[in-house]
Design a protein that fits this description.
CATH superfamily of chain B: ABC transporter involved in vitamin B12 uptake, BtuC
Strand order of the largest sheet of chain A: 6-7-8-3-9-10
CATH class of chain B: Mainly Alpha
Number of strands of chain B: 0
Distance between the termini of chain B: 22 Å
Strand content of chain A: 25-35%
Oligomer: heterodimer
CATH topology of chain B: ABC transporter involved in vitamin B12 uptake, BtuC
Shape of chain A: globular
CATH topology of chain A: Rossmann fold
CATH superfamily of chain A: P-loop containing nucleotide triphosphate hydrolases
CATH class of chain A: Alpha Beta
Number of helices of chain A: 10
Number of domains of chain A: 1
Largest sheet of chain A: 6 strands, mixed
Structural class of chain A: alpha/beta
Radius of gyration of chain A: 20 Å
């Protein structure tokens, strides 16, 4: 059974339709990668899955149970969230922030030491245990992203929802996080829903041998669902983004790379701007 | 870990010391052992040969007064602290949702109707909670109950009750009722009604327990509504619980001691400088500091001059300069 089933979902802000007829599933151990131009509704779709927004039509099921039957606490046991941007308010110790992922198990003031112990274990696994005692307001953007990921893992849920998790990271950190997600899907059977603008991210996960599906959102629909190499080589991106693209295989290595070049349409645009 | 334990020990010792001090000090000074003997003689019947006058002063006057000061201080500080955390705003204090102005209006109304302060605590309490309830309703009427809408609702309701209070002052008999109203609004522990004291204590303690129990939610809520809900905290319910706890504690405090400003604003900041921003330690630490501060100010109120000085005057006069000193020293630590 799929962990997440989205069926004929539609969402609009007031009169403005964001998307409709969106259906897909995510299995345990599977990565589902949302791609599409700015404003296509990737983030909105994720917020629907997280119960932050209420879709006007359609059905979301987690573990076979409709989302409307979940309390926040129950859903937190199934789905954890890594936001794209996080507003830092108070200078908490980093370990306290990570341990907040245990909130769903908290009743009164109990088991604080246990939560901290577990948070430290996860931070150790991610190689960020040296940040534990630091004030989290002093962390860099990349460190914060790792901390938010650690907080989501501490939650011990079956699925991760990540909104452009590597958008602010350098090339090395990006690879680290993507490889970590691949490992979590493979070894722990975590279902992962993530959005990204960089087509090389899904390609990299595919090259890692992960069961990955890519959903292309565009014009208020999810127009394509399939394996990244297949969608990216089909040429359907060219019209959507106004680019010319190809997939390059790196000689001697089992690695694909996505290349986009300017099409004539873009050159017109630049010429117009010059005039 | 060690320096933290020292801070807690220091705070607890301060509370106990100031508590004892406030029973010893006064126009009829007593030594600490006389105080202990008087309390033992009164409550356990062990005879130490303390005069009935001294026992009456200790057990009936100074002891309940010190206790009231401690719990009122703890309540105001903890509520202010919770509201600062909830609204993530350093300028917020316990009155933000209209508790204080509601209580002031209720107190004035009771003075006007009955020409005595007998029913003042009950009226102040009811109107304090009414004001918070109305602030919540305004926020709900105008859309979702977000932090911003709550603050706006609180501002509107506060302004309305302030206007109504001015109206009551305007129509009050200036020689008798008006004086009572003004004096009540300066806050005091001098005229505690022993009949209502247990109720006031009960309400404040319920509020404080709620605030202690929800302090971890305050941390999670400060991550933002969406993240908090995805971590399994029902944002609406958590916010309601925190607001209820803070409002009960404040309403209880205000109804027995009048409106006392400044404590709920400054004590949380001082506590934040000392123990940091984790609400699970910040809230209880604020309670200790608030208790010690309030009892200390009350000692000054009744000893500095021949007659009593209202509490509200001294909390600001002492708290202000002290806060400037701390701001200089810590440079706003605890907020970003």
């Amino acid at each position: 059974m799929s962990l997440l089933e989205v069926n004929d979902l539609a969402f609009s802000f007031g009169d403005k339709l964001v998307f409709e007829h969106v259906s897909f599933t995510v299995d345990p151990g599977q990565v589902f990668c949302l791609v599409g131009p700015n404003g296509c509704g990737k983030t909105t779709l994720e917020h629907c899955v997280l119960m932050h927004l209420k879709p006007q039509r359609g059905d979301i099921r987690v573990n076979g149970k409709s989302l409307s039957e979940y309390s926040e606490r129950e859903l937190a046991g199934e789905v954890a969230y890594v936001p794209q941007t996080h507003v830092r308010s108070f200078p908490y110790r980093t370990i306290d922030v990570v341990a907040m992922g245990r909130a769903r198990k908290q009743r009164f003031l109990d088991a604080r030491a246990d939560h901290e112990q577990y948070a430290l274990e996860i931070m150790d696994q991610l190689g960020i245990d040296h940040l534990a005692e630091k004030e989290y307001t002093t962390l860099s953007g990349g460190e914060l992203q790792m901390v938010l990921l650690a907080r989501a893992l501490v939650q011990e849920s079956k699925m991760l929802v990540l909104d452009e998790p590597v958008a602010h990271l350098d090339v090395r950190r990006t690879q680290d996080i993507l490889l970590l997600l691949a490992k979590l899907a493979k070894s722990r059977g975590l279902a992962i829903l993530l959005s990204t603008h960089d087509f090389n991210h899904p390609l990299m996960l595919e090259d890692e041998g992960i069961d990955i599906q890519m959903g292309l959102m565009e014009g208020g629909r999810m127009s394509e669902i399939g394996v990244p190499t297949q969608i990216l080589s089909s040429g359907c991106l060219n019209d959507i983004y106004g680019i010319e693209s190809q997939i390059v295989e790196i000689p001697g290595e089992p690695v694909h790379h996505f290349l986009a070049t300017w099409s004539n349409g873009r050159k017109d645009c630049v010429d117009n701007a010059k005039r | 870990m060690k320096p933290n334990k020292a801070k807690w020990a220091a705070a607890i010792i301060a509370v106990v010391a100031v508590f004892l001090l406030s029973i010893c000090v006064g126009r009829f000074p007593l030594s600490p052992d006389q105080v202990l003997q008087a309390l033992l003689q009164r409550f356990f019947g062990i005879d130490f040969g303390i005069t009935p006058d001294a026992i009456a002063i200790v057990a009936d006057n100074r002891f309940p007064r010190a206790l009231a000061g401690a719990v009122v201080g703890a309540s105001l500080a903890a509520s202010g602290c919770a509201f600062q955390g909830l609204f993530q705003n350093p300028l917020v204090s316990q009155g933000i949702l209209g508790v204080s102005s509601g209580a002031s209006f209720g107190a004035a109304l009771s003075i006007l109707i009955f020409s005595t302060t007998l029913f003042t605590p009950a009226f102040a309490f009811v109107f304090a909670l009414l004001a918070v309830g109305l602030s919540f309703m305004v926020a709900r009427m105008c859309g979702e109950v977000t932090s911003l809408m709550l603050v706006l609702g609180g501002m509107i309701i506060s302004a309305i009750f302030a206007a109504l209070l001015s109206f009551l002052k305007y129509v009050a008999d200036p020689y008798n009722q008006l004086a009572s109203i003004v004096f009540w609004n300066m806050g005091s522990l001098a005229s505690l009604e022993s009949a209502v004291l247990p109720y006031g204590f009960a309400v404040m303690i319920i509020g404080l327990v709620i605030l202690l129990g929800t302090s971890w939610m305050l941390n999670v809520l400060s991550m933002g509504d969406r993240e908090a809900s995805s971590m399994g905290v029902s944002v609406k319910r958590a916010r309601l619980a925190i607001v209820s706890g803070a409002s009960l504690a404040t309403a209880g405090a205000v109804s027995i001691a009048g409106t006392i400003g400044w404590v709920g604003l400054v004590i949380p900041h001082i506590a934040r400088f000392i123990v940091g921003s984790d609400n699970r330690t910040l809230i209880p630490f604020s309670m200790l500091l608030g208790a010690a501060f309030m009892m200390l100010v009350d000692i000054l109120c009744r000893t500095v001059t021949g007659s009593e000085i209202p509490l509200g005057i001294l909390t600001s006069l002492i708290g202000g300069p002290f806060f400037i000193y701390l701001l200089r020293r810590y440079k706003g630590r605890g907020w970003k």
